[in-house]
Amino acid sequence: MRADASDSDRFDRMRRIGWLDMDRISRSRCMVAGAGALGNEAVKCMVLAGFRNIDVVDMDRVAGSNLSRCVMFRGEDEGRFKSEVLARRATELYPDADVRPINSRVQDLTDWDYDLVLGCLDNFSARMHVNSHAVYRGIPYVDGATDGMTGRIQAVLPGGPCLQCASNGSHARVADLRFSCTGDAHVFVPRTAAEITTTSVIAAIQVREAEKMASGRTDLCSRGITYYNGEVGTMDTVDLDADPDCPNHMGD
Ligand SMILES: [Zn+2]
């Protein structure tokens, strides 16, 4: 088979999907909160899919136990800032991308000048922080979470139900427990189960929702909360309405 002009266009096969707007995807200002397992998979998919403008926010450093799930990390990266390693490797994958590391807790960010945000976080309080900023500023937000062989995704659109609408008492009780699969040497953290294929599934769906948001097709975004159970191979989406008592919607 001979090559033609379409074979030299990096995004030719994507352009064949009618609703994808590659120009808007390339211009979208994106933030990925968290540079761990989900962040690695999400940023990998984003740069391969043509996102060029990405801030990666994380304060942690690479540990050996990350290496079973983080495609962008190498053994030699142990001890380096996750955001810096992820940004550098993502740029190798797509040199036209501008992937910028921010070594910070997402709670300490002051600049929220983004078109969309992906939440690849490992704890409830950081999630709620990103959620409330996104809702307040009207920024579309896709949250992802994994726990062993299961995971969940929620796309939060301006005016729609948010993460806090879906939260309940048991979530609140663990608000300050950091559900990390690695942990931090300075605080007690429960080590939760984690496995790469669950991570890949959840991050891939997050990026697919981000493609819709960036393309101006939020009408295609999934509604409610999608639950993935990799152990039995099911995926279900549960409807969700905005909670009139949710503090993020006061004044709507
Ligand atoms: Zn809400």
CATH superfamily (homologous) name: NAD(P)-binding Rossmann-like Domain
Name the hetero compounds present: zinc ion
Task: Note the total helix count.
Answer: 8
Output the CATH topology.
Rossmann fold
Average the pLDDT over all residues and give the rounded result.
91
Please report the first level of CATH classification, the CATH class: Alpha Beta
- Named at the architecture level, the CATH assignment is 3-Layer(aba) Sandwich
Strand residues, percent: 15-25%
> What is the total number of structural domains?
1
**Whole-angstrom Rg:** 18 Å
- Given helix and strand content, the structural type is alpha/beta
Q: N-to-C terminal Cα separation, in Å?
A: 57 Å
Main sheet summary: 8 strands, mixed
Provide the low-confidence segments as ranges.
170-179, 183-188
Structure description:
With 252 residues, the chain is α/β, with parallel strands linked by helices. The chain has one domain (19-242): 3-Layer(aba) Sandwich (Rossmann fold), CATH 3.40.50. It is built from 8 helices and 8 strands; from the N terminus they run αααβαβαββαββααββ. It has an 8-stranded mixed beta sheet, with helices on both faces. A hairpin with a 4-residue loop joins β7 and β8 (234-238). α4 (37-48) runs parallel beside α5 and α4 (37-48) packs across α8. The protein is globular. The model is unreliable at 170-179 and 183-188 (pLDDT under 50). Bound molecules: zinc ion. Residues 161-162, 164-165, 242-243, 246, 248-249 line the site of zinc ion. Zinc ion (ZN) is lined by residues 161-162, 164-165, 242-243, 246, 248-249.
